Each structure stands twice: as C-alpha cells, then as structure tokens.
Amino acid sequence: MSYTQFNVMVWALRLVAAGIMLQTLFFKFTAAPESVYIFTKLGLEPWGRIGIGSLELIASILVLIPRTTSYGALLAVGVMAGALFSHLTQLGIVVQDDGGQLFILALIVFVACSLLLIIFRKQNFLHYILR
C-alpha cells in the first residue's frame, strides 16, 4: 500500500467515525423522541444524553485533528463500547423499529476508531499501552 493510499484510508476512517458521531448529535442535543426514549430506558435521561453527546462531540473533533487522533479514537471506542453493551443488554439491537440502524452505526464507529487506535498506537501515551 502506497503512502497516498494509506493516507486516504486513514482519512476515510476519521471522516466516517466523526461523521456518524456528529450526525447523531443533533438528535441527542434537540431531545428527539428516539433519543429521549433510549436514555429514559437506560435511566440516564436527560444528563446522560447530554453528557454522552458532549463526549461524542469531543471525540469527533479529536479524531479529525491529526495530532489528537489517538485520544479521540480512544474516547470514541469507550463511548461506543458502552453503546454496544447497552444495545446488547437493555435496549436490544432493534430500537423502536429502526432495523438495528443505531446498533450498526455504533459498531461502524467502534471498528473505525479501533483501527485508528492500532494505526496511531505510537502516538502520544498509547505507545506505552498498545505495544
């Protein structure tokens, strides 16, 4: 794989992860009925919805900045692990007849950011954790 191809792949991972997280923020911050339902079922409404939305916003920004990609990817992996766990234990994969769309989007972000963590494992503190 050439440097250009590698760079395109890295930016595609960044844009996919950040794009999905940023797109869902609108629903969290405007208290869309679907988001309110999810966080009420988890017992986290409204502060959990706003807090997790804020963490996703921070992760999205950090993932897009080359020097902070590893920090954003680590934060996003943590948030998406929580989302996936919630889907598997309390919410179910299909939430309010969405066909599993939220679960699949969380899984895509989780995988993209996990790959970014592997790629940028030598960036910042992750060099010591992910050898």
Automatic annotation (TrEMBL):
The keyword Transmembrane helix applies. Keywords: Membrane, Transmembrane, Transmembrane helix. Pfam families: DoxX_2. The keyword Transmembrane helix applies. GO terms for cellular component: membrane. It is found in: Membrane. InterPro entries: DoxX. It is a multi-pass membrane protein. Its main location: membrane. This is DoxX family protein. It comes from Mucilaginibacter polytrichastri.
